[in-house]
Amino acid sequence: MVQRRSRRAGRRRRRLALAAVLAAGLVAGGVGLAASSAGAPARARRAGSVATTVPFTVPTTVPPPPAVPPVFYNGPRDRPMVALTFDSNLTDAMIQELSSGKVASFANVAVIDELDQLQVPATIFLAGKWIERYPDLTRRLAADPLFELGSHSYAHEAFHQPCYGLGTLPAVGMAADVAHSEALLRQFTSRPTLYFRFPGGCFDQAALRAIAPTGVTVIQYDLPSGDAFGTSVPAIVRNVLTKTQPGSIIVMHITGGNTAPLTSDALPQVVAGLRQKGFTLVRLSDLLAPLSPSS
């Protein structure tokens, strides 16, 4: 009886010792897995063993920043070609001026008449609310082979401050604003450009990143004509004719009203003066087109 008890006690001691050895091995194995998952070299496994964990690799590279759209301030400087571009704009405050009768119209049809009469190709940037207010004039512009149309945003709010007293468009709404304007253009023409001009020409890198998903090409300018809130036709004409260079992108306005009241009066002298200087007036798509192999 005493011997049986002794044998049972011996077997129990051996089981406990074996369990202690196994436990120590499991702990050691767990530390090894943790070290391996943190990037430390793992011990070589025995042949035929099956991995029970998926190796984890710590990223070593930073993702590239979002793409931004191209921005053009001018075309090639080696050819005597320049682009006359025209902006329209209409804000909520301007709509109130129309409703109150303070301003009769923010569409300067005389500018379009002059361009047609003088046979001047032009690129015209239309704000979405202006399109909605003047759909018939938009159809005329879209149907005229002299012109191509681009977006000047929908609400004509600032994409960067300060910006000539314009209201601020939140960054989260910038892409939607541009997309809305582009969608409106496509209701009037089957050949809209993907050219976009920021309201007031105001932007920063954050704005460029925000509108990148729309796929537009940003058009700035190297020569503001001075017709915005201009008070002197000779001053506007002199400014353009003395500062234009080959490849210049000149910005004027078709808004009219009290924002650019003298554009139609200055335009004939501007066009005549540029042509006398040997400049060819072209649309932006022609100014910015890559040179053909034969040119």
Helix coverage percent: 40-55%
Cα-atom radius of gyration? 35 Å
Q: Total strand count, please?
A: 9
Distance between the termini: 114 Å
Largest sheet features: 6 strands, parallel
Low-confidence stretches: 1-6, 16-57, 291-295
Average pLDDT, rounded to a whole number, is: 84
Q: What is the strand content?
A: 5-15%
Number of separate helices: 10
> Which class do the helix and strand fractions yield?
alpha/beta
Oligomer: single chain
Helix and strand element order: HEEHHEHHEHEHEEHEHEH
**Shape verdict:** globular
Could you walk me through the main structural features you see in this protein, from its secondary elements to its overall organization?
The relative contact order is 0.17. The protein has 10 helices and 9 strands. 40% of the residues lie in helices and 12% in strands. It is α/β, with parallel strands linked by helices and 295 residues long. Strands 2, 3, 4, 7, 8 and 9 form a 6-stranded parallel sheet that branches. Strands 1-6-5 form a 3-stranded parallel sheet, with no helix packed on it. Helix 3 runs parallel beside helix 9 and helix 8 (233-243) runs parallel beside helix 9. It is globular and about 50 Å long. The model is unreliable at 1-6, 16-57 and 291-295 (pLDDT under 50). The longest helix has 36 residues, at 2-37.
